[in-house]
Amino acid sequence: MTAIALSSDGTWAAAATGDEAVQVWRLGGANEDTQSDGSRIVPTSVPISALGASHAGGMFATATRQGVLQLWSERGEV
Question: Which residues does residue 73 pair with via DSSP β-bridges, in sequence order?
């Protein structure tokens, strides 16, 4: 893992896996949109070097070493 973020309300966490993906966990458990451990894999085009959660909730940001910044919903949508 190269970066970790936790939502301000504590309902989800995200980790940059170092292999062009971010794994997002729904801390309340699994649902129909997630794997059995409550997580979702969000593919990215390059490895992520930084990850941050929005204080307003529901969003996180990823950044690459090349300076590319993307905003995502907690569901993994750009």
Answer: 59
Q: Which residues contact 71 (CB under 8 A, 6 or more apart)?
A: 59, 60, 61, 78
Task: For residues 52 and 15, give the distance between their C-alpha atoms in angstroms, rounded to a whole number.
Answer: 10
pTM for this structure? 0.76
**Residue recorded with tokens 């750009």:** 78
What distances in angstroms separate CA 69 from CA 7, 46, 53, 62, one per listed residue? 18, 11, 13, 6
End-to-end CA distance of the chain: 21
Long-range contacts of 10-13 (CB under 8 A, 24+ apart): 11/57, 11/74, 12/74
Residues 3-20: tens digit of each pLDDT = 999 988 888 889 998 888
| Chain centroid to CA 5 | 7
